Amino acid sequence: MNILEPINNTTEILSSKMKDVIDVMAMQREMRSTLQKSITIDYKNFNDDFTVARFIFECGIKLEANPLTISTAATLYHRFIREINPQNYDLYLIASTCLYLAGKIKDDNKLIKIRDIMNVSSNTLHRGSQPMELGDQYWSVRDAIIQAELLIIRTLKFEVTPDHPHRYMVHYLRSLQAWFGDDEWSKYPVAKTSMALLQDFHHSSAVLDYPPNIIAIACINLTLQIYGVVVPLMDECDQFPWFNVLCKDLTREKLWEVMEKIMSSYDQEPETRDSC
């Protein structure tokens, strides 16, 4: 009996199972990219985790925050929501506060001012609204964010500095680039797509369920599957796949489980959107 046969069979089953899903996901991403500029979400009509996380991303982009700062804010939000009853809180206030707190944590030489967060959050929730004037409403919202910041920190037991998959991904991508060679590597947008998948995965609370290094590998491997790219010299080494060089204990089954979670996170987006 060929000892590699069970491994090969598992790979074939998983590949067959995921092929159609990967193709559909790639098409959905292209369509979403095309429509993104013309679709505006009316956040007041939605209160699910995916949409609130998207609110964080939209506000973060408007504030020109570092991508890692935005991911930190999303991670803090998902962690906080798991600890409380969401019905007892204004989730968009919590989201704005997470963005404010993340700006302090990452401190990427551009501290996000609380007034900027207040104005951007207000304008994103109430499209076309004017910046807040110094008055009762301004000081009320400002005080609410400060109080919410203290609540989040206490709820998370002062553990507000997450171990991000991003740093693992940068290391892994550099290793793969050297593995491929510059000419072959430049043919496919592996780094760009992997990072995009990682950022998108932060819309889902499932990003908390797996070690950051495995999430990074899953995003990269999903990208390789999408573009049909084979890591050099690995086609003859099925018993020792490329990702075991980076994480020796990672199994194929666990890797595909995380990849499925990444893809299923796109299904969490509500289908109905209000457009302008």
Q: How many domains make up the coordinates?
A: 2
The N- and C-terminal alpha carbons lie at a distance of 63 Å
Largest beta sheet, briefly?
none
Which class do the helix and strand fractions yield?
mainly alpha
Helix content: 55-70%
CATH architectural category of the largest domain: Orthogonal Bundle
Proportion of β residues? under 5%
CATH class descriptor name of the largest domain: Mainly Alpha
- CATH superfamily name of the largest domain? Cyclin-like
The SSE string, one letter per element, is HHHHHHHHHHHH
Q: Average the pLDDT over all residues and give the rounded result.
A: 81
The number of distinct β-strands equals 0
Tell me, briefly, the overall form.
Answer: elongated
- Quickly count the helices: 12
* Rg (C-alpha, Å): 21 Å
- Poorly predicted spans: 1-38, 272-276
Instruction: Predict the CATH topology of the largest domain.
Output: Cyclin A, domain 1
Summary?
This protein has helices at residues 5-35, 49-62, 67-83, 91-106, 114-125, 136-155, 165-180, 182-185, 190-201, 212-227, 243-246, 252-264. It is mainly alpha-helical and 276 residues long. This is Cyclin-Q.
Topology (SSEs and partners):
Layout: H1 5-35, H2 49-62, H3 67-83, H4 91-106, H5 114-125, H6 136-155, H7 165-180, H8 182-185, H9 190-201, H10 212-227, H11 243-246, H12 252-264
